[in-house]
Amino acid sequence: MLNAQQNAVVFRANAKVNLFLHVKNKDEKGYHLLNTVFQPLDLSDRIIIREGRSGIKITSDKPIPLDKSNSVYKAIQKICERTSLKFECLNYEIHIEKNIPIASGLGGSAVDAAPVIRFINERFKLGLSEDELDEIGATVGADVPQAMYSCTTYAERYGDKIKEKYHLPKRYVSLYIPTGYMAEYPSKTATLYNMIDEIKKEYGENLDKALMAKLCLMKKALKSGDWKRIGELAHNDFEFVAFKLYPILHKVKEVYKKSGAECALLAGSGGTVFGVYKTPQDSVYASNRIEELVGKGNGLIILTETL
Fold first, then answer.
1. Could you say which of 16, 74, 78, 253 is catalytic?
2. What's the CATH number for 172-305?
């Protein structure tokens, strides 16, 4: 929680990037299994909650869904289903101040659910454990459980099963968010997953074995907090597809690396590409190089830092 103001409580919902993202085969439900490492960022949405008069009312300063499909609405529904809390008895006005670019691989609207789940648990003294809160978050969205924590996390299943936590030294991050990423495709994520499946058929099982070995080394680097080694081991399967469809994103990654990034990678399923730097000055320098590459007004560059 940030603070209380005018009978309101204000929370932060932090963006994330992935330091490692391996897409495995589908399970019996038809969903792809993942091995992934999440890194939360200081970049965040603000969730402002006030006592209301009639039910749950959600508003925002950006054009996002405000009905039952909103992750915050879903979160409240799911926590009520899990406990004795009556949804129809809750009266809150919840305003979502969006700072995280939507559909950019940074957690989108999913992360907004996390602080609301924690708020309801504490407000009504439900006594739910960390594991139970994670389980509720997972029913809302795969990126919700990691957003419960202000540290680096390793997750499995669909990215919603937190297995390990790490505390890394603070670093400064430059984010490049392109305009119109995957806009020509009706379903961004499903399209990318299908494309990855086709590409991985060419590599066979050897690719999976190599990446699992790489993941073991990544975990050791995470435990030691060695950002340089983390950067060497960073991997995202979605780069196979995103860089093929949008070569400029590969060029952005290369500029970040040439500008001294300890780690540079595609975030989630894209299209954000990020660079991690030891000093804020290095991050600013890299951002200027990216602007020279893509041109002013072609996408968005955001400076932030790790949590």
1. 16
2. 3.30.70.890
> At a CB cut-off of 8 Å and minimum separation 6, what does 62 contact?
96, 98, 102
* Tens of each residue's pLDDT in the chain, 307 residues: 545 456 899 999 999 999 999 999 999 999 999 999 999 999 999 999 999 999 999 999 999 999 999 999 999 999 999 999 999 999 999 999 999 999 899 998 899 999 999 999 999 999 999 999 999 999 999 999 999 999 999 999 999 999 999 999 999 999 999 999 999 988 888 899 999 999 888 887 888 999 999 999 999 999 999 999 999 999 999 999 999 999 999 999 999 999 999 999 999 999 999 999 999 999 999 999 999 999 998 999 999 999 9
Query: Distance between CA atoms of 131 and 154, rounded to whole angstroms?
Result: 15
Task: Based on the residue annotation, tell me whether 143 is a catalytic residue of this protein.
Answer: yes
What token pair was written down for 244? Answer: 């093929």
For the domain spanning 3-166, the CATH number is 3.30.230.10
Where exactly does CATH 3.30.70.890 map onto the chain?
Answer: 172-305
Q: Catalytic pick from 45, 112, 134, 143?
A: 143
Amino acid in the structure at residue 156 = E
| pTM of the shown model | 0.95
Does the active-site annotation cover 16? Answer: yes
Which amino acid is present at 78? K
CATH 3.30.230.10 residue ranges for the chain: 3-166
Q: Shortest CA distance to 272 belongs to which of 150, 176, 182?
A: 176
